[in-house]
């Protein structure tokens, strides 16, 4: 159950990052440069957590 909560929080934060980067105000290039390297590892981590929680059922 905890893994499911972690997964939901992770996807919520990812959606928040995407919303911030695609907001009405154009974000600074520095912010995009800081956020972009984290997007792929976050997605991979979410997939791994989802697989582990699926196997544990």
Which terms summarize this structure?
transmembrane; mainly alpha; 84% helix; transmembrane helix; 2 helices; 57 residues; elongated
* Rounded radius of gyration (Å): 14 Å
- Any idea what the shape is? elongated
Give a count of the beta strands, DSSP E runs of length 2 or more: 0
Mean pLDDT rating: 73
What does this structure look like?
- The protein is an all-alpha fold.
- The chain has one domain.
- Helices cover 84% and strands 0% of the residues.
- α1 packs antiparallel against α2.
- 0% of the residues are buried.
Summarize the structure.
With about 55 residues, the chain is an all-alpha fold. The protein has helices at about 1-20, 30-55.
Produce the secondary structure layout.
Elements: H1 2-21, H2 29-56
Helix pairs in contact: 1-2
């Amino acid at each position: 159950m905890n893994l499911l909560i972690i997964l939901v929080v992770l996807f919520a934060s990812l959606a928040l990052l995407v919303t911030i980067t695609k907001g009405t105000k154009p974000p600074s290039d520095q912010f995009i440069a800081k956020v972009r390297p984290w997007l792929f590892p976050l997605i991979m981590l979410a997939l791994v957590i989802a697989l582990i929680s699926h196997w544990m059922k």
